[in-house]
Input
Amino acid sequence: MIVKNKKMRKRNTKWLLFLMALIIVLIVSVAISLASGEIKIGLFDIPSILSDNSSIEYAVLTKIRIPRLILAGAVGGGLSLSGAILQGIYRNPLVEPYTLGISGGAALGVSIAIVSGLGGISFITLPLFGFAGAVITLFLVYFLSVKREGLNINNMLLIGVMVSFVSSSAMMFLMSTTNTDNVQSIVFWVMGSLDESNMILIRIALYSALAALVLTYLFAQPLNALRLGEAKAKHLGINTSLTIRLLFFLASLLTGIAVAVAGVIGFVGLVVPHLIRLIIGNDYRVLLGGSFLGGTIFLVLSDTVARTVIAPNELPIGVITGLVGGLVFIAVLSRSKSHFKLN
Amino acid sequence: MTAKGFFFIWILLFVLAYTNYAKDVRRVVSLAPSVTEIIYLIGAEDKLVGCTSYCSVAENDDVAEVGNAVDVNIEALFALQPDVVLAMKLTKAQDIAAMEKLGIKVEVMDSPRNFDEICDQTLHIASLIGNKREAGEVVEAARKKVKEIENLSSELKHRKIFFQLGANPVFTVLENTFMNDYLSICNAENIAAGLSKGTISRESVLLRNPDVIIIATMGGFGEEEMKIWRTFDTITAVKNNDLFLIDSKTSCSPTPANFVSALEDVYGFLSKRNDR
Output
């Protein structure tokens, strides 16, 4: 008993240290991000800059760098958390937030809004249509997968992938039959960017990501039980069906909000949870928080690189997340002594 | 017959073949919206049998759609039996190879990089499909108008301009493009001069502090971009309320008439505020 307690204490200390290390890295990343850019801003000058609202530095900080930073953090954390949850409930390492057609649905929603001229083009109506598309897709995937005998996880995954293909084809159909103006609008929206100036949208993304983090912690133990498989988790007294459903909705809504505000930003939801697994293991009590912080750090740094690496030009954020995320992951996985496993 | 005689007949045949070529062209397919517009501009639309789904100028006429700007339906195109297909470099190389294999004559053209190249392209298209005289008139009228505006512009104050073309990421007009000519002809300076890529960060625009911001309409995105720029009140253009929208259709589609129309717009924006 004493030995077990000692082991647990050691493990808890390790987790705590890990999460604290991530928080320190996050603080450093935030500092780097705030200080980097074409206009030179010293880290220690920030307080004095913020007190003078007529300077160009003030405009850069409050209207460009800080909103982007918050959005990058919220979207990165949200997508990564969503990826960790979905990989957990599907017990499949290749699942990521976009696998289930959420992004495709959102993009289709926006395309329909643009082509039909509904609501006009504004930075509020398009995210709304994007979110509506994501929610419709998620219910579609859910209800198509529910059978009399319950929810079939593999069916759900396949239906999600198919819905994703159908919506992307439907979007291509719309794009090839509509006029150039609409095509331009659709392309601009789908490209995805953290260049969002609307604070309402940024706040929605931030609060929903934080709320989701708190909510998923209620399911940390059921997720741990699910690592053994649905049948065994049931024997442990977990209501697997309810857990899977709730987590599926939570992860999908979170992804829907991220896509609606920032467009499609790939690789975060796939790569970050895996990296965290490789470092600290598969226990969801640390994995959920670790993935959230990891995603936040990853996207904040990626955006900083995208903004500065070819300044004054800017790279699309997806280029950095794909390149850096993919390469780091391959390097870590191929050097890792242990085999990759989800349970 | 002497060698000299042979040579003479050969030259004669060559000249005849060349001069008759354009007259023989009766069926033309255009794979670029700007080319279609030029065909209408020079009054050769009766020869146009196929175009892309983005060629809005031909919308109400009985012209078959054979693809979009990038993809071409080769079968539909072949069924039209065109004498010549006019394409831009944007058309896929495989599609062009497939057309050539079917024995279709394809003329692939570069995007014009300045006003002179727009005029040359118009004359070149006429040399391929006919209506050379009309094309000459169109080009001459455009040149005259451009010269007029250039002369008037010498009175304009020299100002720094940010000309936005795209959003997500912000995309600017670059030097060595026909759109940059709108600025240089109007005695203005492009803040993106010296850049090789069009994606420009908002910070960079702030730093370069343009006197005037011109934004293409981009199917509705232009207005939204304008709202965003208005929040940056450290920019001179925003302080003085010198932000303008310009129609994407005319300013981005390189034909002599569109060029003149967009140039008039830009001149209008700049002359309105010349007192500042």
Remarks:
- Chain A touches chain B at residues 37-39, 54-56, 59-60, 63-64, 114, 120-123, 176-177, 179-185, 188-189, 191-193, 195, 197, 263, 307, 310-316 (CB under 8 Å).
